[in-house]
Amino acid sequence: MSTRSYHLGEQEIPDGFQIFEERLEVAGVSFRKEDAAAFASATDGWLELERDLGNKHDRNAIKVIGCNKGFFGTKRRFIGYVPILLKNSIFSIR
Prior knowledge:
- The longest helix is centred in the middle third of the chain and has 9 residues, at about 35-40.
- The relative contact order is 0.20.
- The protein has a 3-stranded antiparallel sheet, with helices on one face. A two-stranded antiparallel sheet has the order 1-2.
- The chain has about 90 residues and is an alpha+beta fold.
- About 20% of the residues lie in helices and about 35% in strands.
- It has one domain (about 25-90).
- The chain is built from 2 helices and 5 strands, in the order E-E-H-E-E-E-H.
């Protein structure tokens, strides 16, 4: 495993993983303000990326899901999409 210094400190990057952007501006947050605000105010949160195969506008769209542990399990909130230029660079290395 390699390490890389960035805004979260020294973090291990598992083999087969890559950091595309250190800070990601999520597209479409303005349409999901309530979920984005709830995620941002939660503690111990993390982001997950998920293909949106049912997206009629872009079959390669990638959802950004904000997650955090809640009393009744993990809460997952759809907060937006990976911006198109970054998404295209992710798909170009496949």
